[in-house]
Amino acid sequence: MNDALQTQLDELETRIAFQDGTIEELNMELIKLNDLVARQQYQMQLIVDKLRAIEPSNMASQSEETPPPHY
């Protein structure tokens, strides 16, 4: 009986060690993905800001508009 318990204990310790390694690997990947998302959000914000800056220049102001033909 003692050997069976020792075997089970050894198996559980092995599983825990493996799970700890897996959790650490997953944590590192999560950190990388979080950094990637943050960079992409920053780049997207830059694009949005540039588009907003360009948008008003595509339209003429009221003073630059030519009057309609019926004037």
TrEMBL record:
<protein>
    <recommendedName>
        <fullName>Protein SlyX homolog</fullName>
    </recommendedName>
</protein>
<dbReference type="Pfam" id="PF04102">
    <property type="entry name" value="SlyX"/>
</dbReference>
<dbReference type="InterPro" id="IPR007236">
    <property type="entry name" value="SlyX"/>
</dbReference>
<keyword id="KW-0175">Coiled coil</keyword>
<comment type="similarity">
    <text>Belongs to the SlyX family.</text>
</comment>
<feature type="coiled-coil region">
    <location>
        <begin position="2"/>
        <end position="43"/>
    </location>
</feature>
